[in-house]
Amino acid sequence: MKKKILFVVMDGLGDRGCDMLDGKTPLEYTRTPNLDEFVARGNSGIMDIIAPGVPPGSDTAHLALLGYDPYEVYTGRGPFEAAGIGLIGKRGDVAFRCNFSTVNDRMEVIDRRAGRIKAPETTELVKALSGIAIDGTEILVKEGTEHRAALILRGEGLDPDITDADPHDLRKVATSKGRTGRADHTAAVVNKFVELSHERMKDHPVNVERRKKGLPEANILLPRGAGSFPDMVPFPEKNDMRAACVAGVGMIKGICGICGLDIASVPEVCTGGLDTDMIKKADTALNLLNDYDFVLMNVKASDVSGHDGKAMEKCSVISRLDEMAGHIMRNMPENIVIVFTADHCTPSEVGDHTGDPVPVTIYTKNMIPDDAVKFSEFGCSRGRIGRIRGCDLLRICMDLANRSEKFGA
Amino acid sequence: MKKKILFVVMDGLGDRGCDMLDGKTPLEYTRTPNLDEFVARGNSGIMDIIAPGVPPGSDTAHLALLGYDPYEVYTGRGPFEAAGIGLIGKRGDVAFRCNFSTVNDRMEVIDRRAGRIKAPETTELVKALSGIAIDGTEILVKEGTEHRAALILRGEGLDPDITDADPHDLRKVATSKGRTGRADHTAAVVNKFVELSHERMKDHPVNVERRKKGLPEANILLPRGAGSFPDMVPFPEKNDMRAACVAGVGMIKGICGICGLDIASVPEVCTGGLDTDMIKKADTALNLLNDYDFVLMNVKASDVSGHDGKAMEKCSVISRLDEMAGHIMRNMPENIVIVFTADHCTPSEVGDHTGDPVPVTIYTKNMIPDDAVKFSEFGCSRGRIGRIRGCDLLRICMDLANRSEKFGA
Q: Which whole number is the average pLDDT over A84-102?
């Protein structure tokens, strides 16, 4: 009988020994009876999300956890940042990161971030750029956080191998050029779009207002980091599973969206921040298991504490994650394969992602026992999973869920 | 001094926790003092035969154990099924799986399996197809189990990229076509062969007799699944070892034969089934070590119990395997590297191959000790071999046997 699969990804959970925790990691320092119960009944190990010593981004990490080889499908930040703010393209699209910037009459950039303008002003400005088509290429724009935005070009014969229109400096706006003849058309479309963005925004009411207030006007949109949307087989088709994602953070939703997972709407109390309601998020994930074969749930709070360098705060997040694990244990269906792990380490004394392996525990009924008893970086390393790669995890779980296909006869 | 190497492959041995064994695996449930002695004196670990979570076939598994990358050399079922019934081709040959089928006067298939005809009738029919050559291509046919057979084309300019003559359904016999111009010649040979098989079999005495009895006639041979024999360096040449295989099952002999191992004849009591005489088989293997550097011995019985879903029966097979291990310990030469492992798991509650790692123990004189004490899925995971891939095993053993070559200076 085929089982369902639940991945609980505790973002940035892994850590290193912290001075203020007597050399222990937050996971070692904190009582985690429920996670430990999963460890005792399941199998544990440590996992190099990408490869030993390589610090993963949240984007590449989730690609690996979903069974893709990030070195193969990660085509640069453009498409994944676009997806991260909800602009999910399709095969053949070319995507860019953009800044709302300020230029003078000679088209010289005088503020690359237009005074860190943000929504709702950027939302208004984006409306002025909607419905544009240039030489048969459809243009999609969406605002991101602060002065950031994403741009997608959709049409025939596009090629991302072009230079940036963003001069990356206080200089004249650059003219995008194709690095090969095949990309000349795409560069031309970008240049026309940049010009058009200036025309449509320079006297926009938002900027008239900003001028009055003495604020830098957001009078141009400057694209950079062109990338194709990757040519990947969607997750549900590749693995023959209906799949959904529960996450509070845009980038995780974007990655899962690109991979073809359905993005569940979560209650407003699941914020993706420190104040998130983890129990409600877990309930959302458990409910989805009624309709889906595979659910990935991401809890961001542990990563936030890591980035902020707050080891003690991370310990208290871990206590709450452990309560969530207990709630899951009491409410999970019987025929399930469940995984507790992280997408990367964010050590509190580093304040950024590192390439240390993350702890991983896999539980399903009647697992062969192992020596691991504590859910931590050290505790899990004693388990019989040993040391695996991030992209191995899904295949292992599919096999335990009786969903794998034999290779050979 | 160079040592000899013996692989003892206990087919389908690995398992998962079984309800009827109090959640234990058959290996954990059964006393195995002799295997445990090898564990205590050797080094142990767990092994992903292909890759984590990938259920191996017996064919791909043995390729990996013999040190080949199955993703590189496994060219589809045709050649390996042919080899499995003893029709071992060589580089450049194109091989097919075939069915003896029944067609009517309009060449429509009315029984794809000719009433599941079997030997000795199929053996007689195959004789009528021997010694055929078509346009300079030599034709080899051999009967398999029941209505199955294998076909090899041998000659210049063959290409396996053709469509099947078998319509896979109750329809008119298909005309094989080259998917590229280079394969047109091969398709033409196949079509002529199919026609010829009909001519030579339709009034064959076997069919005259079947007609009288009201049984479907086996009046045509329909090939499918064309594949080239892989372009692999034979095992003895690649590893500079005289090598032999001891197995009761055709497919294992076929795979080893393709790899260039000599296939030892075994006493009739080594059946490849539950009733096999394992001690006699072990004696055959030990004797071969006088003349060969490497011997692979496969015992099938454990896999049979797993496929049949009989956990208790598997336990009793394991007791006999342990006695065999004791016999080997008492009779093995001193200068030997010996491996006890499985080609894949066949969990009794699943009844088919899974991608769980298999236990592995390597013994030779004076090994560095480790923590493993019990030959089981869990027990071996505590050993210092850690978690390796199937295709790593041979290299590790060759190194322990002082047969490896330095890479560099």
A: 90
Tell me the pairing of strands B137-143 and B133-134: antiparallel
Max distance between CA atoms of chain B, in angstroms, equals 75
Identify the segments of chain B with pLDDT beneath 70: none
pLDDT in tens, B259-309: 999 999 888 888 878 888 999 999 999 999 999 999 999 999 999 999 999
- pTM > 0.90: no
pLDDT of residue B44: 98
Residues in chain B: 409
Q: What is the pLDDT of residues B308-342, one digit of tens each?
A: 999 999 999 999 999 999 999 999 999 999 999 99
Q: Which residues of A touch B51 (CB under 8 A)?
A: 392, 395
Interface pTM, i.e. ipTM: 0.84
Please tell me the distance in Å from B240's CA to the nearest CA on chain A: 27
Mean pLDDT, rounded, for A381-405 = 96
Q: Which residues of chain A does B378 touch, with a Cβ-Cβ cutoff of 8 Å?
A: 368-370, 384
User: Is B80 within 8 Å of chain A by CB?
Assistant: yes
Let me know: does A258 contact A59? Beta carbons within 8 Å.
no
